[in-house]
Amino acid sequence: MANPDSHVTIHMAASLDGFIARKDGRVDWIETSDEFAGGDTLDPGFVEAFLKTIDCYVMGSRTYETALRFEKQGFGWSYGDTRTFVLTSRELSRTRDSVEFYSGDLAPLVNGRLRPAFHTIWFVGGGMLSAECLRLGLADEVRYSILPIVIGDGISFFEKLDRDVPLHLMEVKGYTSGTVELRYEVRKDRATSPAT
Ligand SMILES: NC(=O)c1ccc[n+]([C@@H]2O[C@H](COP(=O)([O-])OP(=O)(O)OC[C@H]3O[C@@H](n4cnc5c(N)ncnc54)[C@H](OP(=O)(O)O)[C@@H]3O)[C@@H](O)[C@H]2O)c1
Fold first, then answer.
1. 154 close to ligand 1 (CB < 6 Angstrom)
2. What is the pLDDT of residues 64-78, one digit of tens each?
């Protein structure tokens, strides 16, 4: 039984042309150096407090593998002790107790397992898993951080999404880093339709 108070958010950062990584998975372009004088500043204390409101993360195996590579390079594990569900059909190495692997349909995982147990559920990528989540109508909200860069080609925010999904714009924020954050509600009042 789905918890009516649970909330599923998809969040990623992308280039202005809608890519979350290069075709080969590199995200070397993600640290940008723009300055926007009229922007808001992100207070680290606010970010820390905000991250504490997230009850669980969900990610695809390729995103997990990128996170492990970052950790090996000394950048740390971005998800703290928060429960993290990794979608994979392979046997991947489990590096911490907070990580759990899952294979199969996404809907029973989200509606049958995550929604009853967690209030704030964050899908953190990549493009393939985000598209699956949106296509199945499992997301309540999309947060899209647009970075001030164009990279020309790569893995899309919603990789191979085959439906139109109407959204409602809820919030727009510009930051001193040149990043624009868009927050959308996924409109449940209108059924998604196949793209033609
Ligand atoms: N810019 C950002 O904010 C951001 C955020 C996240 C990721 N990224 C980047 O995006 C890239 C990864 O994105 P991606 O679209 O290629 O891959 P992804 O969505 O991270 O992972 C896709 C993989 O997850 C597994 N999977 C998905 N659904 C499944 C299901 N229902 N059951 C079992 N396994 C399932 C499959 O792999 P198996 O072969 O393991 O089954 C699938 O190939 C990386 O380069 C990462 O760095 C960027």
1. no
2. 999 999 999 999 999
